[in-house]
Sequence to fold (167 residues):
Amino acid sequence: MKNYLPLIGFSLLTSLFIYVFYRTEKTIVNQLVIRLFSKESWQHWKTIVNEALPLRETIVYSLPEGLWVFCITLTSRFFRLSVFGYRIDVALVPILLAVTMEICQLLHLGNGRFDPMDLLIAALFWWVAYVFADTTEEKRELRLRRDFNSLSCMFFYGIVYLAHVIK
Fold:
């Protein structure tokens, strides 16, 4: 997995950039940025970035989820879970989470709005990571361990919380 760290880092930084400068102040990550600096400073820089680099809605609202699915699929490719005697490929979890979140939005069970483009982009990024990631290593059981791969995998799952919108 360490081979993928530069790609994962770039993808997550791209998502962070989009969230900080193009998304609502009500996301948890933007609340953290506002507390670190100030609301005025954040709004000032957000305006400058938006004027200098306008982005399409698809990039602002769909790409970050696709990049997250891509990153977590790359880190999940090395693990499996045993549930009720069945072995589950952990790399299937990111696409299942993305689909579940969109279905919840469609049924108005969560924040946000349903967008088929989100599903398409998440599926595309999942497929790229799932098909092209090198998986010559045997998959290990995902458990709370103090090794780099396990901790990285669980950390990247936790990052999705930072995108949560506070009402």
About this structure: Helices lie at 5-22, 28-36, 39-52, 57-61, 63-76, 93-106, 116-132, 148-159.
